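PROTEIN DESIGN WORKSHEET
SECTION A - STRUCTURE
LENGTH: 317
TOKENS:
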């Protein structure tokens, strides 16, 4: 495993981190076998992964994680979890007391006395100011009480494709970490978010390097066709059929592998989250990310094609 410093936290975190959300939710949405989920978590630790990300809203992920880590020395892993400041999505945030109760529930589920990184989950421009004004003082009190160590914020990409919330957050300079969606088909974080994060020494976690559409050739082709029709991509930039196959050569065996390699390539990113409930899938992805980087000429071509695109609201791939 390789490691990078997570910004101002000073934490030395693994290049690959294990996420317990996403479509699989550590296997809850696929096989539903907690013993198998435990094996994935243990294998992640064996591979050198020391950062595990979860959330109160990820079904029973916190509880499963807590049981899996019950007998693991606490200094072997960094745990990041999240609370939802706006559960109804109507720009009305929860009360400070509800936040305290959420944190206490997470601590019980995770069977730990301290959460390493406690994150505001999925803020958007319309609720950012209210959530910070009403809840950040409470989170600071939780830190003073020793219940959490560092404070982070995660974006809701499909409602904020140009990262306006994260830009506001970085301008305030109160956050230890941010979580961003960045990959081959969504490069917009490179413009302002990454330079600002580096300037402010804020740790960056990449939550989604591989879009769902990248795993489905037909849907990927349709997206490229639409973007050509809109003038977002030049007509001769890529074929509609298997448009990203130019990335498959030498050590890169698939578009998905290329996506993971590209997703960790930017030096502003400390760790790339992968979510799975399958040990073999975990091992394959770790091997890909730790292997040779994406060839420079391929990365440059990606940027030449996709750099100007900011996805519209409702694009869920």
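SECTION B - SEQUENCE
RESIDUE ASSIGNMENT:
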């Amino acid at each position: 495993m390789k490691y990078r410093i997570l910004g101002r936290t000073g934490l030395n975190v693994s290049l690959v981190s294990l996420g317990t959300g996403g479509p699989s939710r550590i296997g809850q949405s696929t096989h539903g076998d907690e013993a198998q989920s435990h094996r994935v978590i243990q294998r992640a630790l064996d591979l050198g992964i020391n950062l595990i990300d979860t959330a109160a809203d990820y079904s029973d992920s916190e509880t499963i994680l807590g049981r899996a880590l019950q007998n693991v020395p606490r200094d072997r892993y960094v745990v990041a979890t999240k609370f939802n400041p706006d559960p109804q999505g109507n720009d009305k945030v929860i009360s400070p007391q509800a936040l305290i109760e959420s944190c206490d529930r997470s601590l019980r589920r995770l069977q730990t006395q301290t959460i390493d990184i406690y994150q505001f989950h999925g803020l958007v421009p319309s609720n950012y100011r209210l959530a910070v004004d009403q809840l950040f003082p409470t989170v600071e009190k939780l830190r003073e009480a020793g219940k959490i160590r560092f404070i982070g914020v995660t974006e809701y990409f499909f409602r904020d494709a140009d990262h306006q919330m994260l830009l506001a957050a970085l301008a305030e300079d109160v956050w230890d970490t941010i979580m961003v969606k960045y990959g081959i088909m969504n490069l917009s974080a490179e413009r302002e978010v990454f330079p600002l994060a580096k300037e402010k020494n804020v740790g960056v976690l990449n939550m989604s390097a591989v879009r769902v559409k990248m795993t489905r050739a037909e849907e990927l082709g349709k997206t490229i066709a639409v973007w050509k029709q809109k003038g977002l991509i030049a007509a001769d930039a890529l074929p509609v059929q298997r448009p990203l196959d130019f990335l498959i050569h030498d050590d890169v065996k698939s578009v998905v592998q290329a996506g993971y390699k590209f997703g960790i390539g930017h030096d502003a990113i400390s760790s790339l989250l992968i979510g799975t409930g399958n040990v073999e899938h975990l091992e394959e992805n770790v091997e890909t990310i730790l292997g040779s980087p994406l060839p420079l000429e391929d990365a440059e071509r990606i940027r030449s094609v996709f750099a100007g695109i900011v996805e519209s609201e409702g694009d869920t791939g």
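SECTION C - NOTES
Residues 313-317 have pLDDT under 50 and may be disordered.
The chain has one domain: 3-216+253-301.
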